[in-house]
Automatic annotation (TrEMBL):
This is Cohesin subunit SA. Residues 1-72, 1059-1087, 1104-1144, 1162-1192 are annotated as: Disordered. It comes from the Eukaryota. Residues 1162-1171 have a biased composition (Acidic residues). One of its GO terms (molecular function) is chromatin binding.
């Protein structure tokens, strides 16, 4: 029983002479200043102690049946205050008015109702009776309620979920506020009601029962807020009365009214007494509740305190906005819980928003500014957002508070992937850099190069370049979009900065700055047209409102009208700059092409097409050519009238390119002539242009397959073809086949076209296979990538979705091709990064190249893993991939793990066989390197064992779903262990026996029944002499047998006794011959089949429909912490045979045997199908006031703590 601590027998308010509620004036440690309310000192004269509350009037024997003493508007009578407030059907004003009427008629009964209201709001099922109210002190009442507290569920009204209880919390807070407001003129000064309520709430807030402490703290803080409002009104009335008194006294004697002076003097005196009374109440709540609960173990309680003190400081700044109260907010900004830190920041925002209060915050700002700045990088995104908003308010109040370093720590957050953080940082950046206007800027034009926006755009460009994150322009634009949208949409000023000549004395933009400006301009146009954040921010496209859709259409129309004219000019100016041209050519995809016709802009379209043609002729960069191709694709839209004009221009360009390519290729492939570099360059540049256009346009009518195939074949025969020509020829041929497939899939082609496609596809795949043996790595990587894509496209998946007519196109790789693909992965992916680049010069470039190379290798591995997942290649080829899981975990761990997950979903048994095969391969490699007499403590063997443990974790906790797979894994492992006899002759362990030590890592995943089956299967390979061996070389067999016997009937039996009892029983059976030789299966029996061995012993099989399992705790007590008698009892339980063959199976313990493995438990979480439920606790009260609210390891080991985990098998 945890009882509340003794409360004061008398409740007396501290007396203060001034209007301040605390004498603390400095920002010091809270432990120095905190002091509880003293006993019986300084009380106001005539005040009645809470212990005397029952003596003012009798309860008249009234029980709890008529607890309210008033009728409800809805006709329901005799309802408690808690029930009325919870239902929320009556207005709070009417509930309070009814209670006040009841209080005026019999204040003891009404006050008893109010006390029970707070008790019931805490979730306590008990109630305070009239007898208890008359004769028991508050401490005794709280102790009694603690004893009657029903904590079966662990929930109470403030923590319950659902709309009803969410509304109840607001109704509860509203009730307290309305109660004080309605009683502020008389009842709160009767020295009875408020004394009793404050005393009760103070005692409850000190309880060790969380529900009492949480509810009473919320009530006390809301009560304090209501009293602060009353005190503020009293202060205003006192000021008004004082001014009236001074005005009347300053009149001449003839006009002065002495009776009015006396009335004003008496009124001021009454107001002063009331204010003193209110201050005493507030001091009692502050020092009795707040000072202790703002450090409570429960985060919700701490958050309540900080939220309310922020309200007090904002509402009554003259009394509360000083260092004595601000220090609590400053200290709490270091709280471990994000919710509490968030309340601190929101409280401060309300203060910094009012500029009149800035002078009072100077000391606080200087002391805690660094902490606020650091919170901009808080791990909780909500806290970081509010911290940045608070810094924006600080910046708005004064420019001198934040240093340049402080601002820079916020600036870079505009590139954050979390959009709310980035938007808040964008607002901060805008306030700092763009919102200040000097007097010389007042008369500047609104738009254009010399406009104010022109200067701000330059500032944006300068910031973008200084941030050195040039690839994240879209992120910067998105961050500034909400606060600087008008600036970013001033495309006229951007065009003017790019096209117009600078004015005399004006500094022109550099080439680097112009490139950055074009990128920002493109990002702003994309943001305006697409209306969603860039990739990496946000969860996807959201539904636009009608207003947003209209804005989007207007912006798109304006963009088209502006850039239809300006884009040809920009392309003409920057036609030789590849980076600028690439960005500019992306603009037409955001145009409203209808405006070219309606706006009579055809001549500008002709100019644009001429410029695009010139760009194609000038550039050979892939990015530029692909941008030109996509521009033609965007303009060639059959829905618009400009289609014919654009299509003619595109066809003329492609005709010239194809004719030029065929002519150059014919000369290039002439036999007997050595091609020079100029010819190779001409072929390559033309092939690049054709390949880039073939990506987005169908060029089938030009029949490019023959020329490209001839080019690739010549490269194989001669071996001197430039690698770039081969790479682009492969890519172009791949596009040709894909466009041909698209036509065939549409059903618009003939049967002959399908036959042609099948021949071309197979010939091309054979060509790529031959290029896998090329000496050039880049060519091999291109051939591998295209080959994987082709195998995926033309796999058995091609006939899905009703495309059975494409069955003739299915292409299945043969064994040599699968072997070549696997060898490529092993040779080019699973390599050390240092092998690629060992240079020490240019460290930054070297790191960038390493990252790029790793990205390329990850793509190659992912391409091959897709073939495994979609069953294009045999699943067992994945063994060579899975065995690299540990060694290359940092580089490819996520890809390999996902591959294992997908393959398990396809075929659990085959996946398990692949996993054990990978371990067997590693074991054989180790034997070839170290020999058969290796040390089991060697790093190689420990690495294989660790890999097996990781594989075991990936099977998750649901043993039923993985039952057959795990059993098959053990079967293959046992067969491998006994496969090879000892090279030292009979009597020595088999060559691979040590593999059983690796296999034991999977024993914990076996069901109890299956452990017996696997054990019997193991004994079929053993001889009687094997069971008697005790040398170190036989330890793997002993440990593996023990792992299979753990938790069974013979847990504590020795190996020899277990085998002896079994062999003796065999000898007693005369009907069956007992063999004394090796217990291997005859060759004629199906010992290697997948299903027979599992059905040999029917008596140990678990039926498909299993009964409900017994429930056992997953928390095992540490044997070291057990008493000796407990150890003996524990061992007795383990060896007493708790479960027979016909008993219901129990759920095995899922806790890991070693604490150092706990961090790896997440390895199996992807496949976890267990539900872990916390049962109702019998005693969830905290054992001390400030005990953290989490599971203490010591409490788990304590028998007195009834906490367990209930595992429910799905």
């Amino acid at each position: 029983m945890i009882a509340a601590q003794e409360l004061h027998t008398e409740f007396q308010f501290p007396q203060e002479t001034d209007t301040q509620l605390s004498s603390d004036t400095d920002l010091e440690d809270p432990d120095v200043k905190n002091a509880k309310l003293g006993k019986g000192k300084g009380g106001r004269k005539g005040k009645k102690a809470p212990g005397e509350k029952g003596k003012g009037g009798g309860a008249k024997g009234t029980g709890l049946g008529g607890v309210n003493g008033h009728h409800q508007e809805n006709g329901m009578e005799s309802m408690t205050l808690f029930e009325v407030v919870k239902m929320g059907k009556s207005a709070t004003q009417s509930i309070v008015d009814d209670w006040i009427e009841s209080y005026k008629s019999d204040r003891d009964i009404a006050l008893l109702d109010l006390i029970n209201f707070f008790i019931q709001c805490s979730g306590c099922k008990g109630a305070v009776s009239a007898e208890m109210f008359r004769h028991m002190q508050n401490s005794e009442i709280i102790r009694k309620m603690t004893e009657e507290f029903d904590e079966d569920s662990g929930d109470y009204p403030l923590t319950m979920a659902g709309p009803l209880w969410k509304k109840f919390k607001s109704s509860f807070c509203e009730f307290i506020g309305v109660l004080v407001r309605q009683c502020q003129y008389s009842i709160i000064y009767d020295e009875y009601m408020m004394d009793t309520v404050i005393s009760l709430l103070t005692g409850l807030s000190d309880s060790q029962v969380r529900a009492f402490r949480h509810t009473s703290t919320l009530a006390a803080m809301k009560l304090m807020t209501a009293l602060v409002n009353v005190a503020l009104n009293l202060s205003i009335n006192m000021d008004n009365t004082q001014r009236q008194y001074e005005a009347e006294r300053n009149k001449v004697m003839a006009k002065r009214a002495n009776d009015r002076l006396e009335l004003l003097l008496q009124k001021r005196k009454e107001l002063q007494e009331n204010q003193d009374e209110i201050e005493n109440m507030m001091n009692a709540i502050f020092k009795g509740v707040f000072v202790h609960r703002y450090r409570d173990a429960i985060a919700e309680v701490r958050a309540i305190c900080i939220e309310e003190i922020g309200v007090w400081m904002k509402m009554y700044s003259d009394a509360f906005l000083n260092d004595s109260y601000l220090k609590y907010v400053g200290w709490t900004m270091h709280d471990k819980q994000g919710e509490v830190r968030l309340r601190c920041l929101t409280a401060l925002q309300g203060l910094y928003y009012n500029r009149e209060l800035n002078t009072r915050l100077e000391l606080f700002t200087s002391r805690f500014k660094d902490r606020i700045v650091s919170m901009a990088l808080d791990k909780e995104y909500d806290v970081a957002v509010q911290a940045i908003k608070l810094l924006t308010l600080v910046l708005h109040s004064s420019d001198e508070v934040l240093t340049a370093e402080d601002c820079e720590s916020v600036y870079h957050l505009v590139y954050s992937a979390h959009r709310p953080v980035a938007v808040a940082a964008g607002e901060f950046l805008y306030k700092k850099l763009f919102s200040h206007r000097g007097p010389e800027e007042e008369g500047m034009p609104r738009r254009g190069r010399q406009s104010l926006n022109g200067n701000l755009i330059k500032t944006t460009v300068f910031f973008f370049l200084e941030s050195e994150l040039h690839e994240h322009g879209a992120y910067l634009v998105d961050s500034l979009w909400e606060c600087a949208g008008e600036l970013l949409k001033d495309w006229e000023s951007m065009i003017s900065l790019l096209l117009d000549e600078p004015m005399p004395g004006e500094e022109a933009l550099t080439d680097h700055q112009e490139t950055a400006l074009i990128e920002i301009m493109l990002c702003a146009i994309r943001q305006a047209c697409e209306c969603h954040p860039p990739v990496g921010r946000g969860t996807g496209k959201r539904v636009l409102t009608a207003k947003e859709k209209k804005t989007q259409l207007d912006d798109r129309t304006r963009i088209t009208e502006i850039f239809a004219v300006a884009l040809p000019l920009l392309l003409a100016k920057y036609s030789v700059d590849a980076e600028k041209v690439t960005n500019l050519l992306q603009l037409p995809q955001f145009f409203d092409l209808e405006i070219y016709t309606t706006g009579r802009l055809e001549k500008h379209l002709e100019s644009l097409l001429r410029q695009i043609r010139e760009v194609v002729e000038k550039h050979t960069e892939t990015d530029v050519l692909e941008a030109c191709s996509m521009t033609y694709h965007a303009l060639c839209n059959e829905e618009f009238t400009i289609f014919n004009r654009v299509d003619i221009a595109r066809s003329q360009l492609l005709d010239e390119l194809v004719d030029k390519f065929n002519r150059l290729l014919e000369d290039f492939l002439l036999e007997g002539e050595e091609p020079d570099e100029d010819d190779a360059y001409q072929v390559l540049s033309t092939l690049k242009r054709i390949t880039a256009f073939h990506n987005a346009h169908d060029l089938s009518k030009w029949d490019l397959f023959t020329s490209n195939y001839k080019l690739l074949n010549t490269g194989l025969q001669n071996g001197d073809m430039p690698e770039q020509i081969v790479i682009h020829a492969m890519q172009c041929t791949h596009y040709i086949i894909l466009w041909h497939l698209a036509k065939v899939s549409e059903g618009s082609s003939t049967k002959g076209n399908m036959v042609t496609l099948r021949k071309q596809m197979r010939a091309f795949c054979l060509m790529c296979q031959r290029y896998l043996t090329s000496v050039n790595t880049t060519v091999k990587e291109q051939a591998f990538t295209i080959l994987c894509d082709a195998l995926m496209i033309f796999s058995h998946q091609i006939v899905s979705s009703g495309r059975e007519q494409l069955e003739a196109l299915i292409y299945t790789p043969d064994s040599p091709l699968q072997a070549e693909l696997l060898n490529f992965i092993l040779d080019h992916v699973f390599i050390d990064q240092d092998d690629d680049n060992n240079s020490t010069d240019g460290q930054q470039d070297d790191e960038a190249s390493k990252i790029e190379a790793l990205h390329k290798r990850r793509n190659l591995l992912a391409a091959y893993c897709k073939l495994i997942i979609y069953n294009v290649v045999e699943m067992n080829t994945g063994a060579d991939i899975f065995k690299q899981y540990m060694r290359y975990y940092n580089d490819y761990g996520d890809i390999i793990k996902e591959t294992m997950s997908k393959t398990r979903q396809i075929d659990k048994i085959q996946c398990a066989k692949t996993l054990i095969l990978s371990l067997q391969q590693l074991f054989n490699e180790m034997l070839s390197d170290l020999g058969c007499n290796f040390d089991r403590s060697s790093s190689s063997f420990c690495g294989i064992k660790e890999l097996a443990r990781r594989f075991s974790l990936t099977f998750g906790l649901d043993q039923l779903k993985t039952r057959e797979a795990i059993a098959m894994l053990h079967k293959d492992g046992i067969e491998f262990a006994f496969k090879e006899p000892s090279p030292q002759g009979e009597g020595n362990p088999p060559l691979n026996l040590v593999f059983l030590d690796i296999l034991s890592e999977f024993s914990s995943k076996l069901l109890r029944q299956d452990k017996k089956t696997v054990h019997l299967y193991l004994e079929r390979f053993m001889t009687f002499q094997m069971a008697l061996q005790r040398e170190d070389c036989w330890l793997p067999l002993i440990s593996y047998r023990n792992s299979l016997q753990a938790g069974g009937d013979d847990d504590t039996m020795s190996v020899i006794s277990g085998y002896s009892s079994r062999s003796s029983s065999i000898r007693t059976k005369k009907a069956k011959p007992a063999s004394t030789g090796k217990r291997k299966l005859p060759e004629g029996e199906g010992c290697s089949t997948d299903a027979v061995w599992m059905n040999q012993e029917q008596n140990v099989q678990t039926p498909v429909m299993m009964p409900s399992p017994h429930l056992t705790s997953t928390v095992l007590r540490d044997p070291k912490k057990m008493r000796p008698d407990e150890k003996q009892q524990h061992q007795h339980r383990r060896g007493s045979g708790l479960m027979e063959d016909d008993e219901e199976p129990i759920v095995e313990d899922v806790m890991m045997s070693s604490e150092d493995r706990l961090e790896d438990l997440n390895e199996g979480m992807d496949f976890d199908t267990m539900d872990i439920d916390l049962p109702p606790s019998k005693n969830r009260r905290e054992r001390s006031e400030l005990k953290p609210d989490y599971f203490d390891p010591s409490s788990i080991m304590d028998d007195s703590v009834g906490i367990g985990l209930l595992l429910r098998v799905q």
